[in-house]
Amino acid sequence: MVRWPSRFAALLASIPVVMAPLWAEAKTARPAASTNFYSFFLAEVIGAGLRELGFTVQPTQQLQVAVGHAAVAAGDADFLTAHWENLNYPMILNNGGETKLQRVGVLVDNTVQGYLIDKATADKHGITSVEQLKDPKIAKLFDSDGDGKANLVGCNPGWGCAAVTEHHLQAYGLNQTVQFVQGEYDALISDAITRLQQGEPILAYAYAPHWAGSFLKPGENVVWLEVPFTALPANQADAATVTTIVDGRNLGFAVDRIRVVANVNYLQQNPVAKRWLELVSIPIADVNAQQKRVHDGEKSPEDLKRHAQEWIQANRQTFEQWLAAARQSGT
């Protein structure tokens, strides 16, 4: 034990203790994004603002969505920019619930998901609903591998949309006539778009924001299929007001919002960062436009960072308003 001379002890005791504000304690940020390019773009916009607010921002970690939620809950990342409010709610429940993970802000609003087919086949055979795929003759129109079943291009295993599709196949009685094709979604949807451009029938799950929206144009070259009734997994949506209706049609998936999901302790210790995460919001049209650039080849980390900086410059006045509001949270 160190014993200080009495005169030093008295001097130390006389020095007032100055408590730093909570927001100054951490002053670091460890963002995570999904493996989707849109999520990395959103994370870069957020990170740029945090740097202007005085935070040291670590390189964005790109993780599978489920892994990203687990990393944030465990404190290995501070926030994730790929939480679909209804679709990914089970990932909150699976990682300690809202005592560990908190959703803040709305990064992208009014995201749409559903099943679509090429317009030519829809018009020729009068196809408007997934229920018609129970007819083996209709299903065979979308058979791309010769097994007699319709090949439904879907999203990656482990994604929330995959759980909904599996639930739909059971609920709508489609397991006997529809084959759920999974893998790397970007590669699968690219192949579907190529077949569409070659005049072949396609059946695919699609969502926005995504670069595929630049090629799949509902009402022009594809049509959304309705579902006969809403059937979501019991743990999928946590809001009583969830709707699956888009333009008067039931597409079967919740009209969703992309939000930040953050570590509860991090938000409590960093009110400036919390306020910033609450404020950042990017129109879905802007994200779709950025995704088109990705599809056209601008997909390196440097490209995505440049996209973020260009979006900030184009929206600098709004960005400054967000910064000013966030700074107020630290005073």
Write up what this structure looks like.
The chain has 331 residues and is α/β, with parallel strands linked by helices. The chain contains 13 helices and 13 strands. The chain has helices at residues 6-14, 37-52, 65-74, 89-93, 119-125, 136-140, 160-171, 185-197, 264-269, 271-279, 284-295, 301-314, 316-328; strands at 28-29, 31-33, 56-57, 61-62, 79-84, 101-118, 150-153, 178-181, 203-208, 222-224, 245-246, 249-250, 256-263. Strands 2, 4, 5, 6, 9, 10 and 13 form a seven-stranded mixed β-sheet that branches. A two-stranded parallel ribbon has the order 1-3. Strands 7-8 form a two-stranded parallel sheet. Strand 7 (150-153), helix 7 (160-171) and strand 8 (178-181) form a beta-alpha-beta unit. Helix 2 (37-52) packs across helix 12. The longest helix has 16 residues, at 37-52. The protein is elongated. The two termini are 39 Å apart.
Quick recap:
By secondary structure, this protein is α/β, with parallel strands linked by helices.
Question: What structural keywords apply?
Answer:
331 residues; two-stranded parallel ribbon; 13 helices; single chain; disordered N terminus; 7-stranded mixed β-sheet; alpha/beta
